Protein backbone atom coordinates (compact mmCIF):
# COMPACT_ATOMS: atom_id res chain seq x y z
CA UNK A 1 0.00 0.00 0.00
CA UNK A 2 1.73 3.20 -1.13
CA UNK A 3 1.92 6.11 1.28
CA UNK A 4 -0.11 9.21 0.31
CA UNK A 5 2.00 12.30 -0.37
CA UNK A 6 2.21 15.16 2.10
CA UNK A 7 0.26 17.30 -0.40
CA UNK A 8 -2.50 14.66 -0.55
CA UNK A 9 -2.75 14.67 3.24
CA UNK A 10 -2.84 18.47 3.39
CA UNK A 11 -5.70 18.40 0.88
CA UNK A 12 -7.68 16.60 3.62
CA UNK A 13 -7.09 19.63 5.88
CA UNK A 14 -5.45 17.96 8.90
CA UNK A 15 -6.55 19.40 12.23
CA UNK A 16 -4.32 20.73 15.04
CA UNK A 17 -1.49 21.81 12.70
CA UNK A 18 0.59 24.98 13.19
CA UNK A 19 0.49 27.84 10.70
CA UNK A 20 4.10 28.45 9.67
CA UNK A 21 4.99 31.94 8.39
CA UNK A 22 7.53 30.68 5.81
CA UNK A 23 6.66 27.68 3.60
CA UNK A 24 10.22 27.50 2.22
CA UNK A 25 11.67 26.90 5.67
CA UNK A 26 9.14 24.13 6.29
CA UNK A 27 10.07 22.40 3.03
CA UNK A 28 13.78 22.64 3.89
CA UNK A 29 13.21 21.11 7.34
CA UNK A 30 11.11 18.27 5.89
CA UNK A 31 13.70 17.49 3.22
CA UNK A 32 16.43 17.37 5.86
CA UNK A 33 14.36 15.02 8.03
CA UNK A 34 13.82 12.68 5.09
CA UNK A 35 17.59 12.08 4.93
CA UNK A 36 18.04 11.36 8.65
CA UNK A 37 18.61 7.79 9.92
CA UNK A 38 15.63 6.03 11.51
CA UNK A 39 15.17 6.44 15.26
CA UNK A 40 13.64 2.96 15.57
CA UNK A 41 13.66 -0.04 13.25
CA UNK A 42 10.86 -1.85 11.48
CA UNK A 43 11.84 -5.16 13.07
CA UNK A 44 11.48 -3.63 16.54
CA UNK A 45 8.01 -2.36 15.59
CA UNK A 46 7.07 -5.90 14.48
CA UNK A 47 8.29 -7.27 17.85
CA UNK A 48 6.01 -4.80 19.63
CA UNK A 49 3.08 -5.78 17.39
CA UNK A 50 3.57 -9.39 18.51
CA UNK A 51 3.65 -8.28 22.15
CA UNK A 52 0.49 -6.19 21.68
CA UNK A 53 -1.17 -9.24 20.14
CA UNK A 54 -0.49 -11.02 23.45
CA UNK A 55 -2.08 -8.04 25.25
CA UNK A 56 -5.17 -8.29 23.05
CA UNK A 57 -5.46 -12.02 23.84
CA UNK A 58 -5.28 -11.41 27.60
CA UNK A 59 -1.79 -12.91 27.93
CA UNK A 60 0.05 -9.67 28.87
CA UNK A 61 -0.54 -6.16 30.23
CA UNK A 62 0.65 -2.85 28.79
CA UNK A 63 2.30 -0.20 30.95
CA UNK A 64 2.64 3.03 28.98
CA UNK A 65 3.95 6.11 30.77
CA UNK A 66 5.85 9.34 30.53
CA UNK A 67 5.47 13.08 30.14
CA UNK A 68 2.35 14.81 28.95
CA UNK A 69 4.62 16.97 26.78
CA UNK A 70 8.38 16.50 26.64
CA UNK A 71 10.60 19.58 26.52
CA UNK A 72 14.01 20.04 24.93
CA UNK A 73 15.33 21.22 28.30
CA UNK A 74 14.24 17.89 29.79
CA UNK A 75 16.66 15.86 27.66
CA UNK A 76 19.24 15.23 30.39
CA UNK A 77 20.71 11.98 31.66
CA UNK A 78 19.13 12.50 35.10
CA UNK A 79 15.67 13.26 33.75
CA UNK A 80 15.61 10.32 31.33
CA UNK A 81 16.97 7.94 33.98
CA UNK A 82 14.41 9.12 36.54
CA UNK A 83 11.51 8.47 34.16
CA UNK A 84 12.89 5.08 33.17
CA UNK A 85 13.49 4.18 36.82
CA UNK A 86 9.90 4.74 37.90
CA UNK A 87 8.59 2.86 34.85
CA UNK A 88 10.86 -0.08 35.70
CA UNK A 89 9.62 0.01 39.31
CA UNK A 90 5.98 0.12 38.19
CA UNK A 91 6.59 -2.76 35.76
CA UNK A 92 8.22 -4.89 38.49
CA UNK A 93 5.27 -4.26 40.82
CA UNK A 94 2.75 -5.17 38.11
CA UNK A 95 4.69 -8.25 37.00
CA UNK A 96 5.44 -9.61 40.47
CA UNK A 97 2.32 -8.59 42.37
CA UNK A 98 -0.03 -8.94 39.38
CA UNK A 99 1.57 -12.17 38.08
CA UNK A 100 1.37 -11.14 34.43
CA UNK A 101 3.97 -10.26 31.75
CA UNK A 102 4.20 -6.48 31.29
CA UNK A 103 4.90 -4.75 27.96
CA UNK A 104 6.90 -1.58 28.71
CA UNK A 105 6.16 1.42 26.49
CA UNK A 106 7.56 4.88 27.21
CA UNK A 107 5.60 7.99 26.35
CA UNK A 108 8.91 9.56 25.37
CA UNK A 109 11.42 10.34 22.59
CA UNK A 110 8.81 12.07 20.43
CA UNK A 111 6.02 13.49 22.62
CA UNK A 112 6.86 17.11 21.75
CA UNK A 113 3.59 18.27 20.11
CA UNK A 114 0.23 18.77 21.78
CA UNK A 115 -3.29 19.43 20.43
CA UNK A 116 -4.90 22.52 21.93
CA UNK A 117 -8.53 23.52 22.41
CA UNK A 118 -7.81 27.04 21.10
CA UNK A 119 -5.37 28.41 18.51
CA UNK A 120 -4.63 31.42 20.71
CA UNK A 121 -3.98 32.30 24.35
CA UNK A 122 -4.83 35.65 25.96
CA UNK A 123 -3.16 37.07 29.07
CA UNK A 124 -3.77 40.57 30.43
CA UNK A 125 -5.37 41.66 27.17
CA UNK A 126 -2.51 40.30 25.00
CA UNK A 127 -3.39 37.51 22.53
CA UNK A 128 -0.68 35.25 21.09
CA UNK A 129 -0.59 31.84 19.35
CA UNK A 130 -1.14 28.96 21.79
CA UNK A 131 1.85 26.92 22.92
CA UNK A 132 1.65 23.67 20.91
CA UNK A 133 4.66 21.92 22.39
CA UNK A 134 8.39 22.40 21.86
CA UNK A 135 8.04 20.80 18.40
CA UNK A 136 6.16 23.91 17.27
CA UNK A 137 6.94 26.99 19.39
CA UNK A 138 8.20 28.20 22.75
CA UNK A 139 6.43 28.19 26.11
CA UNK A 140 7.44 31.78 26.98
CA UNK A 141 4.54 34.19 26.48
CA UNK A 142 6.24 36.52 23.99
CA UNK A 143 5.49 37.18 20.30
CA UNK A 144 8.94 35.89 19.30
CA UNK A 145 8.65 32.68 21.31
CA UNK A 146 5.17 31.79 20.10
CA UNK A 147 5.92 32.00 16.33
CA UNK A 148 5.85 28.43 14.93
CA UNK A 149 9.40 27.54 13.83
CA UNK A 150 10.00 24.57 11.47
CA UNK A 151 13.62 24.30 12.65
CA UNK A 152 12.12 22.83 15.83
CA UNK A 153 11.14 19.71 13.84
CA UNK A 154 14.86 18.97 13.46
CA UNK A 155 15.31 19.71 17.16
CA UNK A 156 12.64 17.08 17.90
CA UNK A 157 14.62 14.52 15.91
CA UNK A 158 17.85 15.31 17.74
CA UNK A 159 16.21 15.35 21.18
CA UNK A 160 14.44 12.04 20.46
CA UNK A 161 17.67 10.45 19.23
CA UNK A 162 19.51 11.54 22.39
CA UNK A 163 16.69 10.22 24.61
CA UNK A 164 16.59 6.84 22.83
CA UNK A 165 20.38 6.52 23.03
CA UNK A 166 20.20 6.99 26.79
CA UNK A 167 17.28 4.58 27.22
CA UNK A 168 18.99 1.89 25.15
CA UNK A 169 22.19 2.30 27.16
CA UNK A 170 20.30 1.98 30.45
CA UNK A 171 18.16 -1.05 29.52
CA UNK A 172 21.03 -3.05 27.98
CA UNK A 173 23.92 -1.85 30.15
CA UNK A 174 22.93 -3.34 33.49
CA UNK A 175 20.70 -0.63 34.94
CA UNK A 176 17.54 -2.65 34.20
CA UNK A 177 18.97 -5.83 35.74
CA UNK A 178 16.45 -7.22 38.25
CA UNK A 179 19.25 -7.41 40.79
CA UNK A 180 19.07 -3.61 40.85
CA UNK A 181 15.52 -3.49 42.27
CA UNK A 182 16.66 -1.88 45.53
CA UNK A 183 18.85 0.76 43.89
CA UNK A 184 15.83 2.04 41.92
CA UNK A 185 14.34 3.36 45.19
CA UNK A 186 15.65 6.85 46.02
CA UNK A 187 15.73 8.42 49.47
CA UNK A 188 12.59 10.56 49.17
CA UNK A 189 10.60 7.53 48.01
CA UNK A 190 11.88 5.18 50.72
CA UNK A 191 10.25 7.28 53.45
CA UNK A 192 6.77 6.97 51.89
CA UNK A 193 4.38 4.06 52.56
CA UNK A 194 4.50 3.14 48.85
CA UNK A 195 8.30 3.17 48.94
CA UNK A 196 8.39 0.95 52.02
CA UNK A 197 5.94 -1.45 50.39
CA UNK A 198 8.16 -1.49 47.32
CA UNK A 199 11.21 -2.32 49.49
CA UNK A 200 9.35 -5.31 50.91
CA UNK A 201 8.49 -6.51 47.41
CA UNK A 202 12.11 -5.99 46.31
CA UNK A 203 13.24 -8.16 49.23
CA UNK A 204 10.87 -10.91 48.04
CA UNK A 205 12.38 -10.64 44.57
CA UNK A 206 15.88 -10.88 46.06
CA UNK A 207 14.93 -14.15 47.75
CA UNK A 208 13.45 -15.50 44.53
CA UNK A 209 16.61 -14.57 42.61
CA UNK A 210 18.81 -16.17 45.27
CA UNK A 211 16.79 -19.39 44.94
CA UNK A 212 17.15 -19.33 41.15
CA UNK A 213 20.90 -18.78 41.47
CA UNK A 214 21.17 -21.66 43.93
CA UNK A 215 19.61 -24.08 41.43
CA UNK A 216 21.79 -22.76 38.61
CA UNK A 217 19.16 -20.73 36.77
CA UNK A 218 20.37 -17.38 35.42
CA UNK A 219 18.17 -16.40 32.45
CA UNK A 220 19.16 -13.47 30.24
CA UNK A 221 15.68 -11.94 30.79
CA UNK A 222 16.71 -10.97 34.33
CA UNK A 223 19.50 -8.72 33.05
CA UNK A 224 17.71 -6.56 30.48
CA UNK A 225 14.23 -5.48 29.45
CA UNK A 226 12.53 -4.78 26.14
CA UNK A 227 11.53 -1.12 26.20
CA UNK A 228 9.69 0.71 23.41
CA UNK A 229 8.90 4.35 22.60
CA UNK A 230 5.59 5.98 21.68
CA UNK A 231 4.02 9.38 21.00
CA UNK A 232 0.95 10.98 19.48
CA UNK A 233 1.76 11.34 15.77
CA UNK A 234 0.24 14.79 15.43
CA UNK A 235 2.40 16.96 13.16
CA UNK A 236 2.01 15.84 9.55
CA UNK A 237 5.33 17.34 8.38
CA UNK A 238 7.39 15.51 10.98
CA UNK A 239 5.58 12.17 10.90
CA UNK A 240 5.45 11.96 7.10
CA UNK A 241 9.13 12.89 6.80
CA UNK A 242 10.00 10.17 9.33
CA UNK A 243 8.14 7.45 7.40
CA UNK A 244 10.31 4.97 5.52
CA UNK A 245 9.72 1.99 3.24
CA UNK A 246 11.12 -1.11 4.94
CA UNK A 247 13.64 -2.95 2.74
CA UNK A 248 12.42 -6.36 3.95
CA UNK A 249 8.72 -5.93 3.26
CA UNK A 250 8.39 -2.82 1.07
CA UNK A 251 5.87 -1.57 3.64
CA UNK A 252 5.82 1.95 5.21
CA UNK A 253 6.83 2.32 8.86
CA UNK A 254 6.93 5.47 10.95
CA UNK A 255 10.50 5.22 12.27
CA UNK A 256 10.18 8.09 14.78
CA UNK A 257 8.67 5.72 17.38
CA UNK A 258 7.68 2.09 17.81
CA UNK A 259 4.03 2.85 18.63
CA UNK A 260 2.15 5.95 17.46
CA UNK A 261 -1.42 6.99 18.19
CA UNK A 262 -4.22 9.21 16.90
CA UNK A 263 -5.65 11.65 19.43
CA UNK A 264 -9.27 12.20 20.40
CA UNK A 265 -9.32 15.47 18.43
CA UNK A 266 -7.94 14.04 15.16
CA UNK A 267 -9.66 10.65 14.75
CA UNK A 268 -12.16 11.76 12.05
CA UNK A 269 -12.80 8.80 9.74
CA UNK A 270 -12.31 10.91 6.60
CA UNK A 271 -9.51 13.01 8.14
CA UNK A 272 -5.84 13.26 7.26
CA UNK A 273 -4.57 11.43 10.36
CA UNK A 274 -6.68 8.31 9.81
CA UNK A 275 -5.71 8.34 6.11
CA UNK A 276 -2.02 8.53 7.01
CA UNK A 277 -2.19 5.94 9.80
CA UNK A 278 -4.02 3.32 7.76
CA UNK A 279 -0.91 2.91 5.58
CA UNK A 280 1.55 2.38 8.46
CA UNK A 281 2.76 -1.06 9.58
CA UNK A 282 3.60 0.08 13.13
CA UNK A 283 1.37 -0.98 16.00
CA UNK A 284 -1.01 1.98 16.38
CA UNK A 285 -3.53 3.37 18.85
CA UNK A 286 -6.64 5.55 18.75
CA UNK A 287 -7.92 7.59 21.69
CA UNK A 288 -11.66 7.18 22.35
CA UNK A 289 -13.43 9.64 24.65
CA UNK A 290 -17.04 10.11 25.79
CA UNK A 291 -18.17 11.29 22.33
CA UNK A 292 -17.09 8.02 20.67
CA UNK A 293 -19.84 5.55 19.81
CA UNK A 294 -19.54 1.80 19.26
CA UNK A 295 -20.13 2.40 15.55
CA UNK A 296 -17.26 4.92 15.52
CA UNK A 297 -14.97 2.31 17.04
CA UNK A 298 -16.01 -0.34 14.51
CA UNK A 299 -15.58 2.07 11.59
CA UNK A 300 -12.11 3.04 12.81
CA UNK A 301 -11.13 -0.62 13.21
CA UNK A 302 -12.32 -1.39 9.69
CA UNK A 303 -10.44 1.59 8.25
CA UNK A 304 -7.20 1.16 10.22
CA UNK A 305 -6.99 -2.63 10.49
CA UNK A 306 -9.14 -4.10 7.70
CA UNK A 307 -7.30 -7.45 7.86
CA UNK A 308 -7.94 -7.67 11.61
CA UNK A 309 -4.24 -8.29 12.37
CA UNK A 310 -3.79 -9.08 16.10
CA UNK A 311 -1.63 -6.51 17.89
CA UNK A 312 -1.92 -3.84 15.25
CA UNK A 313 -4.73 -1.77 16.81
CA UNK A 314 -5.16 -0.50 20.37
CA UNK A 315 -8.15 1.49 21.60
CA UNK A 316 -7.06 3.87 24.37
CA UNK A 317 -10.17 4.95 26.29
CA UNK A 318 -10.37 8.26 28.18
CA UNK A 319 -13.86 8.77 29.58
CA UNK A 320 -13.31 10.30 33.02
CA UNK A 321 -14.04 8.59 36.33
CA UNK A 322 -17.70 9.65 36.29
CA UNK A 323 -18.45 8.32 32.78
CA UNK A 324 -16.34 5.20 32.25
CA UNK A 325 -18.78 2.70 33.79
CA UNK A 326 -21.66 3.85 31.56
CA UNK A 327 -19.77 4.91 28.44
CA UNK A 328 -17.30 2.07 27.95
CA UNK A 329 -19.51 -1.08 28.01
CA UNK A 330 -21.37 -0.43 24.70
CA UNK A 331 -18.05 0.02 22.88
CA UNK A 332 -16.38 -3.09 24.29
CA UNK A 333 -19.51 -5.18 23.86
CA UNK A 334 -20.10 -4.33 20.19
CA UNK A 335 -16.44 -4.45 19.14
CA UNK A 336 -16.05 -7.84 20.84
CA UNK A 337 -19.26 -9.19 19.29
CA UNK A 338 -17.97 -8.26 15.82
CA UNK A 339 -14.80 -10.28 16.39
CA UNK A 340 -12.50 -7.27 16.12
CA UNK A 341 -9.02 -8.02 17.48
CA UNK A 342 -8.03 -5.03 19.58
CA UNK A 343 -6.16 -4.27 22.79
CA UNK A 344 -8.12 -2.14 25.28
CA UNK A 345 -6.03 0.33 27.28
CA UNK A 346 -7.18 2.87 29.87
CA UNK A 347 -5.95 6.49 29.85
CA UNK A 348 -7.23 7.64 33.27
CA UNK A 349 -5.56 11.05 33.03
CA UNK A 350 -7.20 13.15 30.32
CA UNK A 351 -10.81 12.80 31.39
CA UNK A 352 -10.08 13.90 34.97
CA UNK A 353 -8.47 17.33 34.62
CA UNK A 354 -9.80 20.46 36.33
CA UNK A 355 -8.56 23.85 37.52
CA UNK A 356 -7.75 24.14 41.21
CA UNK A 357 -8.95 27.02 43.39
CA UNK A 358 -5.34 28.25 43.24
CA UNK A 359 -5.39 28.43 39.42
CA UNK A 360 -3.41 25.27 38.59
CA UNK A 361 -4.49 22.64 36.09
CA UNK A 362 -4.61 19.47 38.20
CA UNK A 363 -6.07 15.99 38.71
CA UNK A 364 -7.18 14.10 41.79
CA UNK A 365 -5.22 10.91 42.34
CA UNK A 366 -8.43 9.27 43.57
CA UNK A 367 -10.23 10.11 40.27
CA UNK A 368 -7.38 8.63 38.26
CA UNK A 369 -7.52 5.41 40.29
CA UNK A 370 -11.33 5.32 40.10
CA UNK A 371 -11.29 5.46 36.31
CA UNK A 372 -8.86 2.53 36.18
CA UNK A 373 -11.09 0.62 38.63
CA UNK A 374 -14.12 1.40 36.45
CA UNK A 375 -12.19 0.18 33.39
CA UNK A 376 -11.40 -3.11 35.16
CA UNK A 377 -14.99 -3.44 36.42
CA UNK A 378 -16.41 -3.04 32.91
CA UNK A 379 -14.09 -5.67 31.45
CA UNK A 380 -14.73 -8.08 34.32
CA UNK A 381 -18.46 -7.69 33.76
CA UNK A 382 -18.14 -8.40 30.04
CA UNK A 383 -15.57 -11.19 30.34
CA UNK A 384 -12.99 -9.23 28.34
CA UNK A 385 -9.39 -8.33 29.14
CA UNK A 386 -8.38 -4.93 30.59
CA UNK A 387 -5.21 -4.70 28.53
CA UNK A 388 -3.24 -1.85 30.07
CA UNK A 389 -2.89 1.69 31.36
CA UNK A 390 -1.43 4.90 29.95
CA UNK A 391 -0.29 7.28 32.68
CA UNK A 392 1.23 10.73 32.55
CA UNK A 393 3.96 10.57 35.16
CA UNK A 394 7.45 11.74 35.98
CA UNK A 395 10.34 10.33 37.96
CA UNK A 396 10.61 13.53 39.99
CA UNK A 397 9.13 14.78 43.26
CA UNK A 398 6.73 17.23 41.59
CA UNK A 399 3.46 18.56 43.01
CA UNK A 400 0.98 18.53 40.11
CA UNK A 401 -1.79 16.04 41.05
CA UNK A 402 -3.58 16.29 44.40
CA UNK A 403 -4.31 13.41 46.76
CA UNK A 404 -2.59 10.06 47.16
CA UNK A 405 -0.75 8.80 50.22
CA UNK A 406 1.17 12.07 50.58
CA UNK A 407 -2.20 13.87 50.80
CA UNK A 408 -1.06 16.72 48.56
CA UNK A 409 -3.69 19.48 48.63
CA UNK A 410 -4.46 22.40 46.30
CA UNK A 411 -2.29 24.79 48.32
CA UNK A 412 0.66 22.44 47.86
CA UNK A 413 0.53 22.52 44.06
CA UNK A 414 2.67 25.67 43.96
CA UNK A 415 5.59 23.90 45.66
CA UNK A 416 6.95 22.12 42.54
CA UNK A 417 4.57 22.48 39.61
CA UNK A 418 6.81 21.93 36.57
CA UNK A 419 4.63 20.57 33.73
CA UNK A 420 4.21 22.88 30.72
CA UNK A 421 0.84 21.39 29.71
CA UNK A 422 -0.90 18.73 31.83
CA UNK A 423 -0.35 17.60 35.45
CA UNK A 424 1.58 14.36 36.00
CA UNK A 425 1.69 11.81 38.79
CA UNK A 426 4.91 12.15 40.79
CA UNK A 427 7.22 9.30 41.69
CA UNK A 428 5.43 8.22 44.88
CA UNK A 429 1.95 8.53 43.33
CA UNK A 430 3.14 6.39 40.38
CA UNK A 431 4.25 3.60 42.73
CA UNK A 432 0.97 3.83 44.67
CA UNK A 433 -0.87 3.53 41.36
CA UNK A 434 1.14 0.46 40.36
CA UNK A 435 0.30 -1.36 43.61
CA UNK A 436 -3.40 -0.55 43.25
CA UNK A 437 -3.48 -1.71 39.61
CA UNK A 438 -1.57 -4.90 40.57
CA UNK A 439 -4.41 -5.68 43.00
CA UNK A 440 -6.94 -5.15 40.19
CA UNK A 441 -4.88 -7.41 37.91
CA UNK A 442 -4.83 -10.19 40.49
CA UNK A 443 -8.61 -10.10 40.60
CA UNK A 444 -8.88 -9.93 36.80
Instruction: Outline the biggest β-sheet.
Output: 8 strands, parallel, barrel
Number of structurally distinct domains: 1
The overall strand count is: 14
SS-based class: alpha/beta
Helix content: 25-40%
How far the N terminus sits from the C terminus, by CA atoms, comes to 39 Å
Strand content: 5-15%
Q: Under the CATH scheme, which class?
A: Alpha Beta
Bulk shape: globular
Radius of gyration: 21 Å
CATH superfamily: Aldolase class I
Q: What letter string, H or E per element, gives the SSE order?
A: HHHEHEEEHHHEHEEEHEHEHEEEHEH
**Average of per-residue pLDDT values:** 96
Q: Please count the helical segments.
A: 13
User: Can you tell me the CATH architecture?
Assistant: Alpha-Beta Barrel
- By CATH, the topology is TIM Barrel
List low-pLDDT spans.
Answer: none
Strand line-up in the sheet with most strands: 1-2-5-8-9-10-11-14
Structural description of this entry:
The protein has one domain (6-176, 224-443): TIM Barrel, CATH 3.20.20. With 444 residues, the chain is an alpha/beta fold. Helix 11 (324-337) links the parallel strand 10 (313-317) and strand 11 (343-346). It has helices at residues 6-11, 23-34, 42-56, 77-98, 151-172, 187-190, 193-214, 236-241, 272-277, 294-304, 324-337, 365-382, 427-443; strands spanning 61-66, 102-107, 120-123, 126-129, 227-232, 243-245, 252-254, 259-262, 284-288, 313-317, 343-346, 353-355, 361-363, 388-392. It starts with 5 loop residues before the first helix and ends with a helix. Helix 4 packs parallel to helix 13 and helix 11 runs parallel beside helix 12 (365-382). The chain is 39% helix and 14% strand. Strands 1-2-5-8-9-10-11-14 form an eight-stranded parallel barrel, surrounded by five helices.
Amino acid sequence: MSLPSLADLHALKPLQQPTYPDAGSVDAAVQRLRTMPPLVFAGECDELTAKMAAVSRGEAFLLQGGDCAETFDGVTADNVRNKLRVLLQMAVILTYAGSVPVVKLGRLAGQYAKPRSSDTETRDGVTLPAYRGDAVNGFDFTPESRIPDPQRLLDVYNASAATLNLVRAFVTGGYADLRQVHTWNTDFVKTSPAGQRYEALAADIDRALAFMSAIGADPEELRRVDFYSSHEALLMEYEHAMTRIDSRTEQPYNVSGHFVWIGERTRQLDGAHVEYFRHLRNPIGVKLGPTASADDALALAQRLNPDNVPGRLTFITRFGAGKVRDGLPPLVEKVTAEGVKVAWVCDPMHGNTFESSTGYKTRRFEDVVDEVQGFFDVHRGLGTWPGGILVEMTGDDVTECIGGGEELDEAGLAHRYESVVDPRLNRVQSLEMAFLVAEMLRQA
